[in-house]
Amino acid sequence: MKYEVRFSGSGGQGIILASVILGTAAAIYENKETVQSQAYGPEARGGASKADVIISDEPVGYPKAREIDAMVCLSQKAAKKYITSLKKGGIVIIDSDFVDIPESKKYKLFKLPMSSTTLDKMGKLIALNIVSLSALVSITKIISHEALEKAITDSVPKGTESFNIEAALIGKTLAETAK
Fold first, then answer.
1. What CATH code is carried by the domain that includes residue 64?
2. Taking the model in full, what pTM does it have?
3. Has residue 116 been placed in a domain?
């Protein structure tokens, strides 16, 4: 089993941290082979950014994602730029508050109001990356939520663990209501 995930959005949305947490959860708590990489435009904050994670049962031979199985899109600019890398039958999870892409027979689309829900439930958008990561895990089941929560606790700044676990529960609930 090899699964390629892409987080895409604007610089400053925390997609790199989300990818690192996913890779950590898969490697440390699910005993999978993982590779994580990232790229962002020259303007960094505000520009289209991506962060990829490859999760596999066997060693990963090539460190760059080429056929994305699942993608999270948090900005319209990133969605337009990276949607072509999704393999046929892949999963696209968009923040429906800011991203609008058409339905297609090429992929399965999940439209989740992640920004507005995060702001409403958490009071700030800083947790959007964790909400989207948890929604991805709920939809794809690529790792367990137990592994995700452990990796979140390991990866976020000390003192923010419960805040981020709450954000993960919001993402999980959003994904469950979308099915």
1. 3.40.920.10
2. 0.93
3. no
